[in-house]
Design goal:
This protein is α+β, with helices and mostly antiparallel strands. It contains 27 helices and 31 strands. The longest helix has 41 residues. It starts with 15 loop residues before the first helix and ends in a 9-residue tail after the last strand. The N terminus is likely disordered.
Length: 850
């Protein structure tokens, strides 16, 4: 994969001042940006998107900014206190430069990039690398930017850019959705004000208990106070004009006796002497025995009837929502202007028509069910519903029953629903990418993780899927598959097992492997390419409508394929395909990283083996060695062992540890090991002289390293051969002392550990040498500190563990002894590198052992 920073910059090469001026002059863009400004208390969804951007891109800071005539930070992660919600000049912002480009703003090193190097965030050191994506509305106006940045320089990958682009689309969707929600909330407030302005009050008279319930509007019409209002029919009669009492009482009685309707107009005399006309309509509801048990109704002030009627009409006509009334036969009786516009039909064509005739799709739908429920229960209903063509839209409706039938007001919310769906799809795609990243990052076995990709993309992005990887020898093989239909998974597995053997060279799979480009093909076309046989028959059973082959791209090579299949009649969503390609790119990069890691591991192990040679086997002496790298290291480090014969016939054992745990330490280790070998074999000197010579050589050659080492030489005179003993002469440069096991299995202290100075500190340092006499059959063990040191305990405790283990294992053969010691002390997985070298002195009164 080529580096983004190496590509020519194709954006507008404008300085920040001119770009900011252009942004301010665009009046339409300013209006759009101001419309999308979040509330003062912020937007939690934008906050989460900013946090997700920082986490997915692994950067310390992210920001979502809107650009009006200033920059407003709408959300951010890792910003200074007070930055979110703050404003700054457009001329000082990298987001302004981002908004002036035709695509992403990719800055690898901000201090050397002419586009941004003079901006305050760069000169202050806050921004060293930057990746920004413009926030663009559906109308093509750039209103801001989403960006991620950090103080250090960084190479941005194609996957990084794709991730930021996806997050920017999600942020833009959330901004538009929030603006729409605020607009609709304002509309709802106006609806409530319109209803209040109409002055309609409601009542509910329970004939069984005598309780008469009024809403606040009706209480105010009669001139009562809410506190202390007596909920009985007397409260109604006490305010009736004396001349209307008898007439209204008869109308109420008739309504109750017949379980019929109430339609009465009467006067109310308020406590201040003012007389108001009210018009009441209601209905008596029967009980199980057919007798009335309840009267429901509504009343409104008809004083100055013409003026009131005109006012109600003006309110309904001015409502920002559609409104219509249905009578008890479900016929339209009133339609306001907004309803005409939303329904695409004039009121002249609707009034008098039955609802089911004017809108056939409403029959046996949520519309009819909800309307019937409102009339049956006497309770208002609210719901969202979709009406098919010719309206082809989503609507938010509220319906409430009245004595005359049903009143309905509604809003078209198609755009809001589409924005919500886009937001949900965007969040789903981000969740898929996050899951893929987590699975691939959590294992070094990228091939096994890649085999699980079909379960991630199905059914969110495709109906079924097969993933293919290319072996090191260049042969493709299918490693995983998944079908949305559980009953078809076994069928898909059988197809994946045989399809590659019969796939022709012109197939989409072969072409994508060769070109590294996505290939789309019709399912019937792919089926026609297959020769008669098992693959052809299985694919015919699977019946794919469309196949899309996406390459798993690594660094300059194709490492596999992700094949998506869609059922016949399914529309292939380009955003889904784009997300699937992001999944494929992540998998390709993970496979490539695993390949590189394996190559590096093999190289490191080869280097280590070349540096640490097999030991000699002197007469009547057995030497064994072990080298175990740290479990979390690159399998190469600074620990080393050595064993060789000097010209005088003595056997010399060496153990050492260079400071460091990387390839530099390994290189230094190789230098010191070679120097020590050369000094010892040329000079035939003893351990202390060898260490002194090595220290002097390091100073002369200016070797910038520190190391510990212990050298032991095993010597014999003819008399010692006769007596069956061997002298061990040893010197220690800051290393742990040897461990001596007597022939009877007991442990001996070779000498007090003096702890001479490390190598590489002072070449003139005085060094001491110790001599100990060993019986034949004794064993000497030299080791590095990785064998005894642990994070959860000190060195002394580790030495005790080692001595206990060796005492119990002393009877074992030498090779087995070393294996068991490693198993007991580090369980085969040390936290630090471990090197061991041991010698066992066999008796000389018999032939040399095999």
């Amino acid at each position: 994969m080529d580096r983004i920073a190496d590509r020519p910059y194709r954006g507008l090469r404008l300085p920040a001042e001119r770009s900011a001026s252009d942004l301010r002059r665009d009046a339409g863009r300013l209006e759009e940006a101001r419309r999308l400004l979040p509330p003062l208390n912020g937007n939690p969804v934008l906050d989460r998107l900013a946090e997700l951007a920082a986490r997915l891109l692994d950067v310390p800071s992210s920001q979502i900014a809107l650009l009006t005539d200033v920059q407003l930070v709408a959300a951010g992660e890792g910003l200074p206190p007070g930055a979110v919600g703050g404003e700054s000049r457009l001329e000082d912002s990298l987001c302004t430069v981002t908004a002036g480009t035709a695509g992403p703003l990719v800055v690898t090193d901000a201090r050397t990039d002419e586009r941004v190097c003079r901006l305050p965030p760069v000169t202050s050191g806050e921004v060293g690398a930057y990746l920004g994506m413009p926030l663009t509305t559906a109308g093509g106006r750039t209103v801001g930017a989403l960006c991620v940045f950090g103080p250090e320089t960084r190479e941005w990958s194609e996957i990084d850019i794709a991730t930021v682009r996806q997050l920017a689309e999600s942020a833009m969707t959330e901004l538009e959705l929030s603006a729409l929600v605020r607009q609709y909330e304002g509309d709802r407030v106006r609806w409530g004000l319109a209803i209040d302005a109409a002055g309609i009050g409601t009542f509910d008279w329970d004939l069984v208990t005598g309780r008469l319930s009024w809403d606040e509007q009706l209480v105010r019409m009669f001139g009562y106070e809410l506190d202390g209002f007596a909920e009985t029919i007397d409260a109604f009669n006490d305010r009736l004009h004396p001349d209307d009492v008898e007439r209204v009482t008869e109308a109420l009685q008739q309504c109750i006796d017949t379980c019929g309707d109430l339609d009465a107009e009467y006067r109310v005399v308020r406590p201040d002497g003012e007389t108001r006309w009210l018009h009441a309509r209601g209905r008596a509801l029967p009980g199980p025995d057919g007798l009335a048990i309840r009267v429901l109704g509504a009343a409104y002030d008809t004083t100055g009837e013409r003026e009131s009627a005109a006012l109600v009409t003006r309110v309904l006509e001015a409502m920002p929502a559609g409104f219509y009334s249905l009578d008890r036969e479900w016929r339209f009786t009133y339609v306001n202007a907004e309803a005409e516009r939303l329904l695409g039909t004039s009121r002249e064509d609707l009034i008098g028509k039955v609802l089911g005739e004017a809108f056939p799709a409403a029959v046996n739908s949520i519309f009819e069910e909800s309307y019937f429920s409102a009339v049956r229960t006497g309770l208002s209903v609210s719901f969202d519903a979709y009406y098919p063509a010719p309206l082809d839209g989503w609507y938010e409706l509220r319906a409430w029953p009245s004595p005359d039938g049903l009143s309905v007001y509604f809003l078209e919310v198609t755009e809001r629903r589409l924005v919500q769906q886009r937001a949900e799809r965007s969040a789903q795609r981000l969740a898929i990418l996050a899951r893929v990243s987590t699975e691939l990052a959590g294992t070094l076995d990228a091939a096994a993780a890649t085999a699980h990709l079909p379960k991630v993309v199905v059914p969110s992005l495709a109906d079924f899927c097969i993933v293919t990887v290319v072996d090191p020898d260049g042969r493709p093989r299918d490693v995983g598959s998944w079908h949305a239909d559980a009953s078809s998974r076994a069928l898909l597995e059988r197809y994946a097992a045989v399809r590659l053997d019969s796939m022709p060279a012109a197939s989409p799979l072969a072409r994508s492997l060769l070109s590294g480009e996505p290939i789309r093909a019709d399912g019937a076309t792919v089926l026609g390419m297959l020769p008669p046989g098992q693959s052809h028959d299985l694919l015919a059973e699977l019946r794919p409508g469309t196949a899309v082959v996406l390459p798993l791209r690594g660094r300059g090579r194709i490492l596999g394929l992700l094949t998506l299949y869609f059922r016949p009649g399914t529309t292939v969503d380009e955003e889904d395909v784009s997300t699937a390609q992001d999944v494929a790119d992540r998998a390709g990069l993970a496979l490539d990283n695993a390949r590189l890691y394996s190559t590096q591991q093999q190289l490191a192990e080869g280097l280590q083996r070349s540096l640490l040679t097999e030991p000699p086997q002197p007469d009547h002496g057995e030497i064994a060695v072990r080298d175990v790298p740290a479990a979390a290291a690159a399998r190469v480090g600074g620990d080393w062992y050595d064993a060789f014969l000097q010209p005088g016939g003595s056997t010399m054992l060496v153990i050492g540890d260079v400071v460091g745990h990387d390839t530099a330490a390994a290189a230094a280790m190789g230098q010191l090991r070679g120097l020590l070998r050369g000094i010892a074999t040329y000079s035939d000197a003893g351990p202390v002289e060898v260490l002194r010579g090595l220290d002097a050589s390091m100073a002369t050659l200016q070797t910038r390293t520190l190391a510990t080492a212990a050298v032991a030489r095993f010597e014999q005179t003819p008399d010692e051969v006769t007596r069956g003993v061997t002298r061990m002469r040893w010197a220690n440069a800051g290393h742990l002392p040897p461990l001596v096991i007597d022939p009877d299995g007991s442990l001996a202290e070779p000498a007090t550990w003096t702890g001479d100075l490390l190598l590489g500190v002072d070449p003139a340092a005085r060094r001491t040498e110790s001599v100990v006499e060993l019986d034949r059959g004794a064993t000497v063990l030299l080791y590095t500190d990785g064998l005894v040191e642990r994070r959860d305990s000190d060195l002394d405790a580790g030495m005790v563990r080692l001595r206990d283990a060796v005492a119990q294992l002393a009877h074992l053969p030498l090779e087995q002894l070393l294996d068991e010691v490693l198993e007991r002390l580090v369980d085969g997985h040390p936290e630090d590198d471990v090197a061991l070298v041991a010698v066992r002195l066999h008796p000389q009164d018999r032939p040399r052992p095999d």
